[in-house]
From TrEMBL:
It comes from Pilimelia columellifera subsp. columellifera. Residues 82-204 form the NADH:ubiquinone oxidoreductase 30kDa subunit domain. The gene is nuoC. NDH-1 is composed of 14 different subunits. Subunits NuoB, C, D, E, F, and G constitute the peripheral sector of the complex. NDH-1 shuttles electrons from NADH, via FMN and iron-sulfur (Fe-S) centers, to quinones in the respiratory chain. The immediate electron acceptor for the enzyme in this species is believed to be a menaquinone. Couples the redox reaction to proton translocation (for every two electrons transferred, four hydrogen ions are translocated across the cytoplasmic membrane), and thus conserves the redox energy in a proton gradient. Pfam families: Complex1_30kDa. InterPro entries: NADH_DH_suC, NADH_quin_OxRdtase_su_C/D-like, NADH_UbQ_OxRdtase_30kDa_su. This is NADH-quinone oxidoreductase subunit C. It catalyses: a quinone + NADH + 5 H(+)(in) = a quinol + NAD(+) + 4 H(+)(out).
Length: 224
């Protein structure tokens, strides 16, 4: 499904080299020579199986503009993922929580992913929702660019997302608009950059362990 001419976010199927996405002397793990074949993620055709069709249809009925908000539906490894346009995520979550046929009352987690080199909208935010009423789980995923990494906060719908959104902001630089206190939660307030982006330098400081000094990762021997 393509909404308003916007190509859906996806991951390339070309082989990926290395492990951490860094180059030069940064990868000292010995995994730099890995070659991994990516898996193309595409729209799943109906029937989706299990309760997924029922959830899809109930949401389509309850949420105005469903076809505009949902970029695509993917069922992979027994899990349902709805790829959502970033600007619609908060109102979609409101419907998922409140509609009697859906009742996804709990947001288990909000996390970030960086698809550097395989998606033009490389920063993704992933939401795991659980319906305690119907014992069901779904995943929502939105994608934004590094240049415009803004996603509406869902804290008004799911208060549990508060610190989780702060962590995604801290580590990936995703700005959750409307968050009540979007500040760093792991790194110092004056820290520059976002450490879990794949183009972030490994860096490090010397560590002493049992009388032996271990150098920072970026100064260690690089295994090739």
């Amino acid at each position: 499904m393509v909404a308003n001419g916007l190509e859906p976010a996806g991951r390339a199927s070309a082989p990926q080299q290395g492990m951490f996405g860094v180059g030069g002397s940064g990868d000292t793990s010995g995994f730099g020579g890995l070659s991994r074949v990516g898996t193309a993620v595409t729209q799943t055709q109906r029937p989706y199986g299990g309760y997924f069709d029922e959830v899809h249809d109930a949401l389509a009925e309850a949420f105005p503009g469903f076809d505009d908000a949902i970029e695509r539906v993917v069922v992979d490894r027994g899990e349902l993922t709805l790829h959502v346009r970033a600007e619609r995520i908060a109102e979609l979550c409101q419907t998922l929580r409140d509609d009697e046929a859906l009742r996804f009352e709990l947001c288990n987690s909000v996390s970030g992913v960086d698809y550097l080199g395989s998606d033009a909208r490389r920063l993704h935010v992933v939401y795991h929702l659980t319906s305690m009423t119907y014992r069901r789980r779904i995943r929502l995923e939105v994608a934004v660019t590094v240049e415009e990494p803004r996603v509406p906060s869902v804290t008004a719908v799911y208060p549990t997302a508060d610190w989780q959104e702060r962590e995604a902001y801290d580590m990936f630089g995703v700005v959750f608009t409307g968050h009540p206190n979007l500040t760093r939660v792991l790194m110092p307030d004056d820290w520059e950059g976002h450490p879990q982006r794949k183009d972030y330098p490994l860096g490090g400081v010397p560590v002493e362990y049992k009388g032996v000094e271990i150098p920072p990762p970026d100064t260690r021997r690089s295994y090739r």
